[in-house]
Design goal:
five-stranded antiparallel sheet, C8orf32 fold, eight-stranded antiparallel sheet, 377 residues, 10 helices, Protein Transport Mog1p, Chain A, alpha+beta
Length: 377
């Protein structure tokens, strides 16, 4: 199916094979983080890439050089015409630039195709104009409901490095930020500015990515999928939590160079949260709600701790264990305590659900071989 679409869009085809992951495209400056089931299937490896899933889902990506089109709207109209697409196109703003979302509904031979497309400006201005990015996520209608998979793929696209710490284009389209509002943080730890729809948007991402994660529970790719779940939430939440992180630092009044004291204060703050789980849903409280309402399970707290520390330029991450059914924070700070080795760093552990000092962990969960570490920078 996708080879016919390549021909329709004048793509060059060169068979290759590699599993999808967090990928940088340095020649164009954009990034993707596709679900683990996708494998690189075709493309010229310069401006054209196609990824395929065993479920029948396809992601086609093509970068167009500056000067090819005068505007993103003209670009999208040209793609609509080439595909003979019956679906609508909708213009929206993403990170102060215009973008277009396409609803795909067209035919490839005898196959009816549905999905979504995205047209974005790339951050590589030249004398010739603006380069553009096209991403199409689709499948045959006979392949079943893959809507969440398509949207997750397109939302993983970051058109520039700055977007790696901001909500993706799909969630931005679905939940425009709205007005700014000031909210009191959990435990009265200062006030922070959020956008009107931050909590709703963040929960949308959590629920969607939980659906994606469930696809891999009984597969060999479950660890990679688990890591992507947290990476996606981290990216979506980082900018949303920025004001809160600054407010918390001010309320704790920690000297700038005392990273351990900052980590200890942040840890004590999340340790005071109300323990909350949703056994029928995603079982993960989005980080905006967690920060404002002071509630969440172990992994919500650990990821929120990591975001707060990274906002303060202190390297942090999380460690998760399927065997223990638990998650904790990890921070790169000095001092005594239990350490978790990962990628050449001995991280200090941070237990977020028990009121213990940073660096302490229960003996019953101390086997490092049963933990998986995840970092984000």
């Amino acid at each position: 199916m996708h080879k016919n679409l390549f021909s329709l869009l004048f793509f060059l085809i060169l068979p290759v094979a590699a599993q999808a992951m967090q990928i940088s495209f340095p020649s164009w400056g954009f990034f993707t983080d596709l679900p683990e089931e996708y494998e690189l299937a075709d493309g010229d490896m310069k401006s054209v890439y196609s990824f395929a899933s065993p479920a029948g889902a396809i992601v086609n990506i093509r970068a167009y050089p500056a000067g090819a089109y005068q505007s993103v709207e003209a670009f999208a109209r040209a793609i609509q015409k080439q595909l003979n697409n019956r679906g609508e196109m909708d213009v929206f703003e993403y990170r102060n630039k215009k973008a277009v979302l396409l609803k795909l509904d067209f035919s490839l031979g005898n196959d009816a195709v549905s999905g979504f497309g995205l047209c974005l400006e790339l951050d590589r201005q030249t004398a010739s104009g603006t380069p553009f990015l096209l991403a199409l996520a689709y499948a045959g209608k006979a392949d079943g409901d893959l809507r969440a998979l398509h949207l997750s793929c397109l939302d993983s696209i970051a058109p520039d490095a700055g977007s790696l710490h901001a909500p993706g284009p799909i969630v931005t389209y679905s939940f425009p930020p709205g007005a700014r509002k000031t909210q009191t943080l959990a435990s009265g730890a200062g006030e922070a500015v959020f956008f009107e729809h931050d909590a709703e948007a963040a929960q949308f991402v959590v629920d969607r990515e939980d659906l994606i994660l469930r696809r891999y529970v009984q597969t060999p790719l479950w660890k990679e999928a688990w890591a992507r779940f947290y990476r996606t939430i981290y990216r979506d939440s980082f900018e949303r939590i920025q004001s809160a992180a600054f407010a918390l630092e001010r309320s704790w009044n920690i000297p700038a160079l005392d990273n351990r004291a900052l980590a200890s204060a942040a840890l004590k703050w999340v340790q005071d949260f109300q323990y909350e789980r949703d056994l029928e849903g995603s079982d993960f409280v989005n980080l905006v709600t967690a920060a404002i309402e002071g509630k969440g399970d172990c992994d919500s707290r650990a990821l929120l701790l990591a975001v707060i520390m990274e906002q303060a330029s202190v390297s942090a991450g999380i460690m998760v264990s399927a065997e223990y059914g638990h998650a904790m924070g990890i921070v790169d700070v000095d001092g005594a305590g239990v350490r978790f080795p990962l990628d050449g760093t001995n991280w200090l552990v941070a237990e977020t659900t028990a009121h213990v000092d940073i660096g302490l962990i229960g003996q019953s969960m101390s086997d490092s071989n049963k933990w998986m570490g995840i970092t984000f920078e």
